[in-house]
Amino acid sequence: MKVKIFADGANLSDMLAYYGSGGVVSGFTTNPTLMRKAGISDYEAFAKEVLASIPDLPVSFEVFSDELPEMEKQARKIASWGANVYVKIPVTNTRGMFTDPILQTLSSTGVKINVTAVFTIAQVKEVVKNLSSETPSIISIFAGRIANAGVDPMPIMKRAVELAKPLPKCEILWASPREALNVVQAEECGCHIITMTPDILATLKTFGKDLHQYSLETVQMFYRDAQSAGYTL
């Protein structure tokens, strides 16, 4: 498949394992929520440690201010940490204010941006208008959460890919996947990237597995577990 897999998380040992996995993973993403769950207290120190170990694959780090001027300041600082850094900018702040002024300013001055928390085609259209065709960028559309809302993300993802075509250096990313099948769906939509957490990455080893054999192994698992538990009737 053409779609690239980015590992999503904030555990350095996991990231290094994927980095040495022989090309399965082509980049990395993280966010403040994942970093907090991983117990990271020093944002900058963690980011620089990651970049010292992974200097040649894309790595996305997110701003965390809610005010646009401070977002821009943080973005420029984060971007200065490495040539492989993409700065994650949320599509809006917490008050719903679109971040287009800083998207345009940052992208036009060479800052690689990963626009995150995108859910709608209207948002994609607005983002595309504010990205430079000369600067690499990513639009992260939360397909998994869209699906959780009972909406088929496939048409949205396909349309987003079309909207991004005038920007040759812009990539559409399928974010928040829920299962390994999403890799196939992302490929069908023409997405350039899909993020995957460690639990979903682990399921890729079953790709191409014979379903009859898979069925038998599942039955065997149930039997072993019942025996191990000592269940009787």
Give descriptors for this structure:
233 residues; 8-stranded parallel beta barrel; alpha/beta
**Biggest β-sheet description:** 8 strands, parallel, barrel
The strands making up the biggest β-sheet line up spatially as: 1-2-3-4-5-6-7-8
Distance between the termini: 49 Å
Which topology does CATH recognise?
Answer: TIM Barrel
- How large is the radius of gyration? 20 Å
Give the % helix: 40-55%
Describe the 3D structure.
- Helices cover 45% and strands 16% of the residues.
- With 233 residues, the chain is an alpha/beta fold.
- The chain has a single domain (4-203), classed as Alpha-Beta Barrel (TIM Barrel).
- Helix 6 runs parallel beside helix 8 (154-164).
- The longest helix is centred in the last third of the chain and has 19 residues, at 211-229.
- The radius of gyration is 20 Å and the shape is globular.
- The model has no long low-confidence stretch (mean pLDDT 96).
In short:
The protein is an alpha/beta fold and about 230 residues long.
Give a topology summary.
Elements: E1 4-8, H1 12-19, E2 27-29, H2 32-37, H3 43-53, E3 59-62, H4 68-79, E4 85-90, H5 100-108, E5 113-118, H6 121-129, E6 137-141, H7 143-148, H8 154-164, E7 170-174, H9 181-189, E8 193-196, H10 198-203, H11 211-229
Parallel strand pairs: 1-2, 1-8, 2-3, 3-4, 4-5, 5-6, 6-7, 7-8
Helix pairs in contact: 6-8, 8-9
